[in-house]
Amino acid sequence: MKPTAALAGLMLGLSATAALAQDLPDLAGREVTVVTENAYPPLQFIDSTGAAIGWEYDAMAEIAKRLNITVKYENISWDAMIPAVSEGQFDLGMTGITIKDERKAAVDFSAPYMRSEMLMIVRGDEARFTDAASFAAIPDLLISAQPGTSPFYAAVYNILDGNEENSRIIKFETFGAGLEALKAGDVDLTLSDSTAANGYVAASDGGLKIIGEPLASEDFGFIFPKGSDLVAPVDAAIASMAADGTLEALNKKWFLDYKFGE
């Protein structure tokens, strides 16, 4: 998958702040507990060997090296992540979290490290609809979504009628469960940002495809407890990684070169 054109603009914006990152702080080996879901390839997931890998793991390893921190990883479900970080149970959360004003009331965000677009995924043989409008026009069609996520709100407000209890939205605890429901024919559409959608489609051997135009764009950031003193150092590290091409290299590795399912 190719990073979006909007991402290129984001990189330029981060590069413009590179002067702030010329002298990165040394955090003297400080232990930082990072929590993730491990359910959102290619950002973070468990591979066929049982290893936790992905774009965010590589980015965090680079941030740790640049800031001289020691990272300890924990795992939690998506619906518990923001409350747990907000309460200070963890120092940092990562799982492709969209930067939203309403979430800023509970947590602090890093600078954006990626911009992506919301895409519609269907089975490879789907011919009943070709875009959001034609899906919405067929009342028997169903869409899977994980409550509280950007795909859920896109389903509600960009495709359907704005009713968060619309019975056409079938709720699942994880994105992966909703995707399996799509493959099995239990639902007819699921949404994902472009960082994951193209990876799933590429790995499906024709079983899945993307239809229509992107519904929206979104910026991803790491989350911290409110007032965390880690925000500024991490922002400086992100800026330095944008300036020296590290973010671009990670995009190439995970969105262009990585082969899902191998």
Please characterize this protein's 3D structure:
There is one protein chain. With 262 residues, the chain is α/β, with parallel strands linked by helices. Helices cover 35% and strands 25% of the residues. The chain has nine helices and 13 strands. It has helices spanning 5-15, 55-67, 78-86, 132-136, 150-159, 175-184, 194-203, 231-243, 246-257; strands at 30-36, 39-40, 44-46, 52-53, 69-75, 92-98, 107-109, 114-123, 143-145, 169-171, 189-193, 208-211, 217-225. The strands form two sheets. Strands 1, 5, 6, 7, 8, 9, 10, 11, 12 and 13 form a ten-stranded mixed β-sheet that branches. A three-stranded antiparallel β-sheet has the order 2-3-4. α1 (5-15) crosses α8 and α2 packs across α8. The longest helix has 13 residues, at 55-67. The model is unreliable at 1-6 and 12-21 (pLDDT under 50).
